[in-house]
C-alpha cells in the first residue's frame, strides 16, 4: 500500500511541476519575423497534408500492385 501511495505521490508531483512550467511559459506567439515565417510555413504544410491525405484522396486512387492485389 505504501508503494502505491508513493507512486501516486510521485505522479502528482510530476503533474504539478508540469502545470507550473506550462503556466510560467505562457501562450505568447512568436514576435520576430523568422519565427512568424516558420509558423506560417508549418500551418501551410499542415493544411496541405490535411487536404492531400484525407480518406477520399487515399482510397479513391487507381489500384496498384499492392499485396492485396498480388494474392488473387
Terminal residue distance: 58 Å
Give the CA-based shape.
flat
Strand % is under 5%
Compute the number of strand runs: 0
Name the poorly predicted regions: none
Element order, helices and strands? Answer: HHHH
C-alpha Rg, in Å? 24 Å
The level of helicity is over 70%
Mean pLDDT: 80
Q: Please work out how many helical segments DSSP would assign.
A: 4
- Please give the largest β-sheet: none
How does the helix and strand content classify structurally?
Answer: mainly alpha
Concise synopsis of the structure shown:
The chain is mainly α and 72 residues long. It has helices at 2-25, 33-52, 55-59, 67-70.
Give a description of the structure.
With 72 residues, this protein is mainly alpha-helical. The chain has helices at residues 2-25, 33-52, 55-59, 67-70. The chain is flat and about 60 Å long.
Structure keywords:
72 residues, 4 helices
Secondary structure elements and pairings:
Blueprint: H1 2-25, H2 33-52, H3 55-59, H4 67-70
